[in-house]
Inverse folding.
């Protein structure tokens, strides 16, 4: 069977290494397909983490509807979020090889196409108009050090579990600083410069794989800031049971949050069943009600690739951002 999953990590690393070379130089990227406007910040400055590009997507009608305010969703792995025609990563020979599988299997490219899918859902009145803030990752192991939940990783756990799967060391993990960057620097900037609904119930976060790990960690660390999270194919295996064990005592009770989890059954996703089952039990213990304020889905036959997440992206978007009656 023609499956490129085995080289996913290698190609992903190559793509991120070339981020600098592929980055656009302008500050505005307009979509050719009438699906919103991109504001691109080439190097968002931070005192907590390394500077990086950030894309801010505004839905159709944003400029005309001067009185309307919008919920905000923060996205990890930002250079892969948007339509092929507009994504700043739609360059270079490295992505073309990996994108071939996605195109054959899903009739789409490598990217999530968040802008296109959100626009379709907004126009169909399935979700309310929303602003997406797409935060680019850093190349190589820096992505994992920023996305690996930090507080529960002791030296013993790192030696027993972390080093078996990853080449990062406990001293390098800085996800607490990454979340500080999001909460104390990026969110205030977005709320100041855009017409946002800045309250907790209108602030969301989403990611896949390690991006799912850091999205869940954001809910644990800043439950007063984030009202909901989508964690697709969460990479529960990194760190053994340490992460979910931590959440037994550090997860908010039901009442103020919406949580979406999912996984496939192939490649890396085949290993996530136990971790997700543990997380599901925590959700139940904390009083969450399945399909009301919490979803946990399994997609049979789906694997650990961006095209698979794109194919089901409408599900978490509708769950978290579903159109509300005025």
């Amino acid at each position: 069977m023609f499956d490129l999953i085995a080289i996913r990590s290698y190609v992903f690393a190559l793509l991120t290494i070339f981020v600098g070379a592929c980055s656009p130089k302008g500050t505005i990227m307009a979509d050719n397909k009438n699906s919103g406007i991109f504001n691109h910040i080439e190097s968002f400055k931070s005192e907590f983490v390394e500077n990086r590009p950030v894309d801010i997507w505004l839905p159709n009608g944003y400029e005309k509807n001067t009185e309307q305010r919008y919920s905000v969703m923060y996205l990890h792995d930002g250079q892969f979020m948007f339509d092929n025609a507009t994504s700043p990563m739609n360059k270079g020979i490295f992505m073309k090889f990996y994108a071939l599988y996605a195109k054959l299997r899903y009739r789409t490219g490598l990217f999530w196409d968040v802008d296109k899918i959100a626009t379709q859902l907004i126009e169909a009145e399935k979700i309310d108009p929303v602003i997406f803030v797409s935060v680019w990752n850093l190349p190589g192991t820096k992505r994992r050090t920023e996305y690996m939940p930090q507080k529960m990783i002791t030296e013993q756990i790192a030696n027993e579990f972390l080093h078996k799967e990853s080449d990062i060391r406990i001293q390098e993990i800085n996800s607490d600083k990454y979340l500080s960057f999001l909460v104390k620097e990026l969110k205030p900037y977005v709320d100041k410069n855009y017409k946002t609904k800045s309250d907790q119930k209108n602030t969301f976060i989403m990611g896949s794989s390690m991006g799912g790990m850091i999205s869940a960690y954001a809910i644990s660390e800043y439950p007063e800031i984030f009202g909901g999270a989508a964690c697709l194919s969460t990479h529960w295996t990194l760190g053994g049971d340490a992460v979910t064990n931590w959440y037994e005592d550090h997860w908010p009770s039901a009442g103020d949050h919406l949580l979406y989890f999912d996984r496939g059954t192939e490649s890396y996703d085949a290993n996530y069943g136990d971790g997700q089952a543990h997380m599901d039990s925590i959700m139940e213990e904390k009083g969450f009600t399945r399909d009301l304020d919490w979803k946990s889905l399994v997609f049979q036959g789906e694997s650990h690739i961006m095209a698979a997440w794109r194919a089901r992206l409408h599900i978490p978007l509708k769950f978290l951002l579903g159109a509300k009656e005025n």
Remarks:
- The first strand starts at residue 28 and ends at 30.
- The radius of gyration is 18 Å.
- Residues 192 and 198 are 9 Å apart (CA to CA).
- Confidence is low (pLDDT under 50) at residues 1-33.
